[in-house]
Amino acid sequence: MDAAAWTEDLHAARAGEPAALERVLKRSRQDLRRYAEYHCPVNDVEDAVQESLFTVSRKLMDLRQLESFTSWLFRIVKRECNRYKRLKRMLMQVPITDDIEGPHYPESKGLARDVANALESLPSHYREIVLLRDLEGLTIEEISEQLKLTKLAAKARLHRARSLAREYLMA
């Protein structure tokens, strides 16, 4: 699709033409996905892309300058990725207890339950680094930036956290 057709589709989509909106969303999807793969945890990429496309379809008419469409699109997906990261951080802070009702955990002899108990036994700074690395899939560089540590300190903390979890699981 050439630039003139793209601009025409953007104007038509903003004017409320459903077919043009579908073309704009379809063309934007691949770029959004590539961008989200860099900024989101692996499990949240598709969700962030879907939410972003939904937001674009609802708010395209409010965009004042169509020339800024691309940067606006990427800001939306980055915001969604950050929202998913915040949600996971909030979930990390919820203590795992036995008084939760319902089928949230496998039976007490299951591996998932043992791992959850091992993570719960870790001090919060060790639990946080294990979850950032192994659940969210952040690199050591990203973790060190987020936790304001040197790369060596982040590696050492991750090693110590995994060692403590391993000790707990071996006991």
Shape: elongated
Number of helices: 8
Query: How many structural domains in the coordinates?
Result: 2
**Roughly how much helix do the residues carry, as a percent range?**
over 70%
Contiguous low-pLDDT stretches (5 residues minimum) are none
The arrangement of helices and strands along the chain is HHHHHHHH
The fold-level CATH name of the largest domain is: Rna Polymerase Sigma Factor, Chain: A
CATH architectural designation of the largest domain: Orthogonal Bundle
Distance between the first and last residues' Cα: 62 Å
CATH level 1 class label of the largest domain: Mainly Alpha
Arithmetic mean pLDDT: 83
Query: What is the assigned CATH homologous superfamily of the largest domain?
Result: RNA polymerase sigma factor, region 2, helix turn helix motif
What is the count of β-strands?
0
Classification by helices and strands = mainly alpha
Radius of gyration equals 21 Å
Q: What does the main sheet amount to?
A: none
| Strand percentage | under 5%
Question: How do you describe this structure in short?
Answer:
With 171 residues, this protein is mainly alpha-helical. The chain is 73% helix and 0% strand.
Structural description of this entry:
The chain is mainly alpha-helical and 171 residues long. It folds into 2 domains: 3-90, RNA polymerase sigma factor, region 2, helix turn helix motif (Rna Polymerase Sigma Factor, Chain: A, Orthogonal Bundle); 104-170, Winged helix-like DNA-binding domain superfamily/Winged helix DNA-binding domain (Arc Repressor Mutant, subunit A, Orthogonal Bundle). Helix content is 73%, strand content 0%. The protein is built from 8 helices and no strands. It has helices at 3-14, 18-39, 45-59, 69-92, 111-121, 124-135, 140-147, 151-170. α1 (3-14) crosses α2, α2 (18-39) packs across α4 (69-92) and α7 packs across α8. The mean pLDDT is 83.
